[in-house]
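Predict the holo structure. Ligand: adenosine-5'-diphosphate.
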Amino acid sequence: MLKISQLHKSYPIGDSSLHVLKGIDLNVESGEMVAIMGSSGSGKSTLLNIIGILDEADSGEYTLDGVEIKNLNEKKAAIYRNKFLGFIFQSFNLINYKNALENVALPLYYQGLKRKERQEKAKFHLKKVGLLDWAHHLPSELSGGQKQRVAIARALAAEPKLLLADEPTGALDMGTSYEIMEFLQQLNDEGKTILIVTHEEDIAKMCKRIVRLRDGVIMEDKKVKQVRAGQNV
Ligand code: ADP
Ligand code: MG
């Protein structure tokens, strides 16, 4: 599904530059649930943004679903993002003046679906995350866990092959974090490939494989016995 080799990324700072990713090699197969772990500043978000085609590496190779991701213009990048990828962020990134249903339906607009289809699909996915009764509520009327569920529904609505989550539980209390992880585990059980960036050990252990980054290098990459989030809720 995803093949990365010898990926490098630096950010310019003044006259010099900060070398953030220093030769990353990573393969992810369809159906995996992978945690990308590391302390703050280790390059996790940088790597996830490159995987998400939100940013581009300086050198190295990246193939997503058989397509080489290289020198894409913004339009092509957007097409691949919409086709392959769903995003979940720590801060939910919902649109505040749109209700839950409209938030979930929005990406479908960019897929060219008609209004009725968008509404139906959005309802289906809101139901899937248990929030159909909240369809007409604004984000400000929802709890943190509910907002993240809406964000997950939005990510799923476009039927991505790969779900990318950057600290999805970072703004949630422990109980709510585990509920979100339980839901992500269910999605993975159904076959969805999921990559989760986290700096929390307990969250990483709920994945099936842990990749540890330190100073832009993969220190360790191993399969683990998945801790089921439901046991902790
Ligand atoms: P993590 O997600 O692991 O906390 P990041 O990938 O966000 O780490 O950042 C890695 C390093 O790169 C940090 O030192 C950060 O300050 C720096 N960095 C991240 N984004 C930028 C940017 N757009 N410009 C300059 N430096 C950046
Ligand atoms: Mg980060």
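The chain has one domain: 32-58+76-231. Strands lie at 2-13, 16-28, 33-37, 59-64, 67-68, 85-89, 162-166, 193-198, 209-214, 217-223.
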